[in-house]
Design goal:
It is a single chain. Strands 2-1-3 form a three-stranded antiparallel β-sheet. 22% of the residues lie in helices and 17% in strands. The protein has three helices and three strands, in the order H-E-E-H-H-E. With 93 residues, the protein is α+β, with helices and mostly antiparallel strands. A hairpin with a 5-residue loop joins strand 1 and strand 2. It has one domain.
Length: 93
């Protein structure tokens, strides 16, 4: 992986290149999911912003959306990946 400075995880591509993770918690129903950053990149692109409230524009609680309730009461958490979690991971080109 080439080092690029200043280091930034402001986009999904930046998170993918850094090898970090992202999880989401629904504050209403208390469900939690670890998001697959590589799959998010495939779906939304490398340049999709992922800071602060940006993920709220593309991610929602499926259970609450189906019930017609507030589906955007979400909290996102960034994660560092351990060497074990990086097995099979490759940086984006």
């Amino acid at each position: 992986m080439s080092n690029k400075y200043p280091f930034s995880e402001a986009t999904l591509g930046g998170k993918l290149a850094a090898g970090t993770g992202l999880s989401v918690d629904c504050l209403t129903c208390r469900r939690r999911a670890v998001l697959n950053v590589a799959e998010l990149v495939k779906r939304f692109g490398l340049d999709q912003p992922c800071l602060h409230l940006d993920p709220l524009k593309i991610i929602y609680c499926d259970e609450y959306r189906g019930a017609g309730r507030d589906d955007r009461n979400l909290q996102f958490t960034n994660h560092a990946m351990t060497p074990e979690q990086r097995k099979g991971w490759t940086p984006c080109p």
